[in-house]
Design goal:
The complex is a heterotrimer of chains A (178), B (102) and C (787).
Chain A: H1 6-27, H2 31-51, H3 55-79, H4 94-113, H5 135-143, H6 149-170, H7 173-177
Helix pairs in contact in A: 1-2, 2-3
Chain B: H1 4-24, H2 28-53, H3 59-89
Helix pairs in contact in B: 1-2, 2-3
Chain C: H1 17-30, E1 33-37, E2 54-58, H2 60-91, E3 100-108, E4 113-120, H3 122-145, H4 152-171, H5 175-193, H6 200-231, H7 236-240, H8 243-251, H9 261-276, H10 285-288, H11 294-303, H12 305-315, H13 317-321, H14 333-354, H15 359-379, H16 383-423, H17 439-443, H18 455-458, H19 460-474, H20 481-499, H21 502-530, H22 537-540, H23 548-566, H24 579-583, H25 592-597, H26 625-647, H27 658-663, H28 665-672, H29 677-750, H30 758-786
Antiparallel strand pairs in C: 1-2, 3-4
The chains are: A mainly alpha (178), B mainly alpha (102), C mainly alpha (787).
Chain lengths: 178, 102, 787
């Protein structure tokens, strides 16, 4: 059984953050609040990363998600005046969606807990390895010839393309002409 | 020590909440945020698996990093499209954007 | 295999090639025509207008090209033939045994192969001499005679095929190839007799010729099949030079009618010849064949068709004689049949010829009569004499036909001339083929001798050549070819008479009578045609005109006139007083024709113990005054009588034929109506055939039975069709239409799924993913539980 120590307490708190934030995101009427809930949830995930000995990813999570994406979303909310048309939060199929999602979760939970998809069932005793790859190894792997250099470069192109695309799509042509 | 399945269960729950948000919210910005939740659920999975099953191999972390990239790109493009749609339709309610129908 | 065309064994293959090639070239390439209204002008004045009909009129260049090709073909054949003839003639006595021959395997019949090949022996040589020369004359003549015909190209093609078939027949080394040539000639005769098929009489004559000869040919084919069945070969040499085969044939009993197999086969083959060479009772087609253009008549009567029948018999003579020996009074069925049919036909046809007024019909019956001479000669074993008469007859009969054609042409010419004068005052001499008024044109018969008279002055060349031909036919003593050949037949017959053989005597008497009548009707024809005053206006203006037409129609007459005289001198008996020494001196070995041709058939003295196979190489009959005197008397007597009745006091216009008074109207009418044989055939064969065709075949079989069955089948199938139609409308259409309709309906329903709402789509995707996940989970769980 799970013993009560600092890790488990942290895990419980972080889980509450993550799930609570997520629920806040999908339920709040006010989108700015929703964005703040999102930040909360993402912070929880960053905490997970720390807990899982991936501090670099945790840092990236804070920088990219919270620092960039969440802010971007806030901007979007403001730019699109989403706040002015706050009506129904949910659409008409929300109950069907809810049922579907619950079913999906049951399926996944069954997969996770029952040994349907192989090993890793709750009864197994797992010992965590003491040696863990850090940021240096990650960096080396990302640029290694036999590692992820090609996906890495493709990802760079993707980012560039996304940036250019975003600029092109979002540009106001009328403003340009004016 | 927290077992792996707990992370997975939390990630699954997060993922399902994200899906619910995508399926049920009317506001496009909220849908985008829900997508971010789903991506984060994936990332939790990736990192948890990495940590528990192959901590020396950096694939798990690398993929998580790529997911960040994808998420950033998705957010950028998605929000740009959102702006564009808003400019043409003066609305970010996805139900109003139903040109692709019979 | 190296083929050396200089080899005389190979060369005969090429003899028929020229005309056959010409046929294909003309038919396939150079015969080009355009459709024009069938007016008198399009027909070159040979026909009346046919209202509302169009006729293919050959183009000018095509006409010229076709003539050139046809002439080239026949000239090629002539050159090769004469080359082969000269080679063969040079061999002399040895040529009989060492004939030019080559053959190739044609049909593998399992255990044996059927060889096709060519054979040139002395008999072939004389045919190869006669046929191409006569054919060349006919071709040259046709250039002029058919010059205004709209189908001249076609004519040259067909006549080339005719010549090619005849040459094939001549050089054939087996009975089957001979039969092929024989049948192709039958086809050509049909096509050419009916060449002016617009005339009903012409097409009827063509059908008559074809069906009559067909009857005979089928019987002949039976003979060929029977022969093949008995011997396993049809090669001339293998049968005729093989005494064992002949002996066996002569002793094997026939399947029907008793007698020997040889006799039955012979009778079958003779039946074929009776049809082809127009002997009684299958002679009726030949006079009607006059409906064809005159060169065709010459071709059929002289060069090709009827000669082929006699040639075939001579060729197969040892088979006919098997089991008999006419030279020693031993006859068998086939020989007696030939002797009786031949002699009877000779006299019978001669009597009919007496009373005919159509210039070509007289000649037609004379042909039948002369062919009867040959048959009779064969019947008494005088096959060399028959061959001799075959050659001389071909020359003078070709000459006579072409001369009569000139007369007819001249008469038509005169008729147009008269007619143009009557209708156009401003007559143009070059415009004399433009007749437009049809009344006189149709009623006028340019072939009727009663319309002629006085042509001697108007067509002198035609007159002289006709005279030569006629005298040759009549057997004018000493000078003409006809005399020598006819005399040899009579001499052969007399030789038998001196031994006291009855058939010989019968033949002798009948032939002498026929020869007398021949001389008489020849003189009658000459007198009626050429002497006295013209009996019609047309005859008064008759003439060949000037130009190519006249030249091409005159030239062959002159050439053949020479042959009609000199061809006889080659076969003068060596012991004939004066002439024998002159033309058949000992230095050249006596009677050259006899000594050359006799080698064609085997000399069986070494195998005399085969009683069934007599020696075919009999020496010529010794000189005897009796037959020669008979020849003199009948020829001169007939000519004198004709001279008295028709020449010295020519018939005037409107006068009746003096023969009517002499014979009595009844007899004359009987003769004129050809013993009512056509009427008899009409009653006995044609009408019953029509009746049978109409009642039994048309009404009962065709309309009743076959149509009944067909209608029944039709009804049944209509019913089935209706059933299927209903089924089709209900089932097939139902399914066929239902599927697309269902798809449309489904689409109409399904399109509501496409709402344009992305979230809805995503929901579906999620549900689907769950379902798939459940399936996976279930299957994986099953696997875990199982293993």
């Amino acid at each position: 059984m799970i013993e009560l120590n600092a890790q488990t307490i942290a895990f419980a708190v972080l889980s509450a953050l993550v799930l609570g934030g997520a629920l806040g995101v999908v339920t709040t009427r006010n989108l700015v609040h929703g964005a703040l809930w999102l930040v909360l949830s993402l912070l929880g995930v960053a905490g997970y990363f720390v807990l899982l000995s991936a501090p670099f990813l945790a840092a990236v999570q804070v920088l990219v998600y919270i620092g960039a994406i969440a802010i971007l979303i806030v901007f979007a909310v403001m730019l699109t005046r989403s706040m002015t048309s706050l009506g129904e939060v949910r659409n008409r199929q929300w109950w069907l969606s809810a049922i579907t999602v619950i079913l999906l979760f049951l399926l996944l939970a069954a997969g996770i807990i029952l040994p349907v998809w192989g090993r890793g069932a709750p009864g197994e005793v797992t010992t965590l390895s003491a040696t863990v790859g850090g940021a240096a190894e990650l960096g080396a792997a990302l640029v290694a010839g036999d590692g992820f250099v090609l996906p890495f470069e493709v990802a760079s192109i993707l980012l560039t393309a996304a940036m250019i695309g975003a600029i092109v799509v979002a540009r106001d042509e009328e403003d340009e002409q004016a | 020590m927290i077992p792996l399945w707990m992370y997975l269960l939390v990630a699954a729950l997060l993922f399902c909440i994200g899906i619910y948000g995508v399926l049920a919210r009317r506001n496009a910005v909220a849908i985008l945020m829900s997508v971010e939740l789903m991506l984060n659920a994936v990332n939790i999975n990736l990192v948890a698996f990495w940590r528990y099953l192959a901590p020396q191999d950096m694939s798990g972390q690398a993929f998580a990093a790529f997911v960040f990239v994808i998420a950033a790109a998705e957010a950028a493009v998605g929000l740009a499209i959102l702006l564009f749609v808003y400019r043409t339709k003066r609305s970010v309610i996805v139900e109003d954007v139903n040109l692709l129908r019979w | 295999m190296q083929i050396n065309l200089g080899d005389p064994n190979i060369l005969p293959w090429l003899i028929p090639a020229g005309p056959l090639l010409a046929f294909f070239l003309i038919m396939l390439i150079s015969n080009r025509a355009r459709m024009l209204p069938a007016t008198d002008h399009a027909y070159g004045g040979h026909h009346p207008d046919y209202e509302g009909m169009e006729v293919l009129v050959v183009r000018g260049w095509s006409r010229v090209l076709s003539v050139v090709i046809g002439m080239a073909g026949v000239l090629l054949a002539l050159v090769i033939s004469l080359h082969v003839v000269s080679l063969g003639w040079g061999y002399g006595h040895y040529f009989g045994e060492e004939a030019f021959a080559s053959s190739t395997a044609w049909l593998d019949t399992g255990l044996t192969t059927f060889d096709m090949g060519v054979l040139v022996d002395p008999l072939t040589v004389i045919m190869l001499f006669m046929v191409p020369i006569a054919v060349l004359g006919i071709f040259i003549y046709s250039i002029g005679y058919m010059a205004h015909d709209p189908r001249q190209s076609r004519f040259f093609a067909l006549i080339s095929l005719f010549a090619g078939a005849m040459l094939t027949l001549v050089v054939a080394d087996n009975l089957l190839l001979l039969f092929v040539g024989w049948e192709v000639m039958g086809l050509c005769s049909y096509l050419l007799i009916g060449f002016w098929f617009e005339k009903e009489s012409a097409s009827a004559a063509a059908v008559k010729a074809f069906t009559t000869t067909r009857v005979a040919d089928v019987i002949m084919l039976l003979g060929i099949v029977y022969l093949y069945l008995e011997t396993g070969t049809l090669s001339f040499r293998e049968i005729l030079y093989n005494p064992a085969v002949l002996q066996e044939l002569a002793t094997t009993p026939a399947i029907i009618l008793g007698g020997s197999a040889a006799a039955l086969i012979s009778v079958f083959l003779i039946a074929g010849t009776i049809g082809k060479s127009a002997q009684f009772p299958l002679h009726a087609w030949l006079p009607d064949a006059m409906e064809g253009p005159t060169p065709v008549s010459a071709m059929i009567h002289a060069a090709a068709m009827v000669s082929a029948g006699i040639y075939a018999i001579i060729r197969l003579f040892p088979l006919f004689v098997a089991g008999a020996d006419p030279h020693h009074g031993l006859f068998n069925g086939p020989l007696l049949l030939m002797a009786l049919v031949g002699a009877g036909t000779a006299l019978f046809a001669a009597t009919i010829a007496l009373a005919q007024n159509d210039v070509k019909r007289v000649l037609a019956y004379s042909t039948i009569s002369q062919l009867g001479f040959m048959m009779a000669a064969l019947g008494i074993g005088a096959w060399v004499a028959a061959a001799f008469h075959l050659i001389t007859h071909a020359f003078f009969k070709a000459l006579l036909f072409m001369a009569s054609g000139s007369v007819i042409h001249g008469m038509e010419h005169g008729e147009h001339h008269v007619h143009d004068h009557a209708s156009h005052d401003d007559h143009d001499a070059s415009d004399d083929h433009h007749g437009h008024d049809d009344d006189q044109h149709e009623s006028f018969d340019p072939q009727d001798m009663m319309n002629m008279g006085g042509l001697q002055q108007r067509m002198p060349v035609t007159f002289i050549t006709f005279l030569i031909g006629g005298f040759s036919l009549a057997g004018f003593p000493l000078l003409t070819a006809g005399f020598w050949s006819k005399d040899e037949i009579l001499a052969d017959a007399w030789l038998g008479v001196t031994h006291g053989y009855l058939p010989h005597a019968l033949v002798f008497i009948l032939l002498a009578l026929a020869a007398f009548l021949t001389a008489f009707y020849t003189m009658r024809q000459l007198g009626l045609t050429f002497r006295g005053e013209p009996r019609t206006e047309a005859a008064r203006h008759a003439g060949l005109g000037r130009g190519v037409v006249s030249v091409t129609m005159t030239l062959p007459l002159l050439g053949l006139a020479i042959f009609a005289i000199v061809a006889g001198f080659i076969g003068v008996p060596e012991d004939f007083p004066l002439f024998g020494a002159l033309f058949s001196p000992e230095a050249v070995g006596g009677n050259r024709f006899h000594h050359f041709v006799i080698e064609a058939l085997p000399h069986n003295s070494a195998t005399e113990f085969f009683a069934a196979v007599p020696d075919m190489q009999v020496s010529a009959p010794p000189f005897n005054l009796a037959p020669v005197a008979t020849s003199f008397i009948v020829a001169l007597g007939g000519l004198y009588l004709g001279h008295r009745m028709y020449w010295r006091r020519p018939l005037r216009a409107g006068e009746a034929d003096p023969l009517v008074k002499v014979l009595g109207a009844e007899v004359h009418e009987t003769l004129r109506r050809k013993y009512y044989l056509d009427e008899l055939y009409e009653r006995v064969f044609v009408r019953p055939s029509f009746w049978f065709a109409h009642r039994a075949v048309d009404e009962f079989l065709d309309r009743g039975l076959i149509d009944g069955v067909l209608h029944l089948v039709g009804r049944v199938f209509t019913w089935i069709g209706d059933l299927l139609k209903v089924l089709n409308a209900w089932l097939i259409d139902g399914v066929g239409d239902g599927i697309p309709e269902g798809i449309v309906a489904l689409g109409l329903r399904l399109r509501h799924l496409q709402t344009g709402r992305v979230q809805q789509y995503l929901l579906y995707i999620a549900i689907a993913a769950i379902l798939i996940g459940i399936v996976f989970a279930a299957s994986a769980g099953a696997m875990v539980t199982a293993g």
